[in-house]
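Sanity check. The docking grid for zinc ion depends on where the pocket ends up, so I'm generating a full predicted complex first rather than guessing from homology. Inputs follow.
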Amino acid sequence: MPACSNRVVALLLAASAAALALPKGPALAQTGTGTGMACASSTAVQPLPMPPEGQAASPLPEPAAAVPHTYAHRLRATAAGWPVRDHWCIWIEPPSAEPGTAAATRERQWLEAVQGALAQWGSQLALALVDHPDQAQVRLWRRRPPLQRLADGRTRASHGRAVLQLLQVQRQGRWHVEPRVDVLLSPGQAPRPTQATALHELGHAFGLWGHSDQASDAMAAVPGAQAVIILSPRDRATLQWLLRQGPRLPSAPTPAGIPPAAPAPPSAPRAD
Ligand SMILES: [Zn+2]
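Predicted complex below; grid placement will be based on this.
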């Protein structure tokens, strides 16, 4: 995965799951606990074994040639294929502050910004809100990403970060291969920049692992003076191009890849 230049894509270590309140987004379906085949809870999770370098099971997608009115050529796939789906299950960290407090107001503004960003992507993709992180492929956390330490020893701060893992997930007794993206979104920005950061990081989550070179796009590498809270025509065209690409991640593990009944501890997650 390429790293964001301004909003860093990096490793997320385990974050605790909080419990449950259900925000409603205007363009989002909502599923109840355990209902809906597509958003069932996971009962086991393992990292997806990756082929040794140079031994991919199928030809890796090459960087795309320039496609008019898109930034498709700036996107990168994973070694296992494009990490995209037709249907995403989304979990949002629920509010936790005492009602009526200033902290509760900030949490509500953060939530509304996230919902606004999700509504934009929900016009392009099938999204469903779920009430537990175990059900989700995309999980939004209300916290500032940790400082990233650069190779030269300096550190870099950011308000948003998206972290991709490729997993084997057991749901309702069957194993699936899924991307999981944890999005850390700072509660410390004003509403409009929060919504712009959410829109950008969710673009990564839904498979746009790369950046536009135009500041008017949500996925701009370098944001312009005006925060982008509406998907541009190029953002939408690039996503639609991506959804037509192959190979995607396999839908299920190969038999050899399915973990044994008593799985070994997972290896360390990869930083992307
Ligand atoms: Zn980015």
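Relevant for the grid: Confidence is low (pLDDT under 50) at residues 1-27, 32-37, 262-272.
Also worth noting: The first helix runs from residue 102 to 122.
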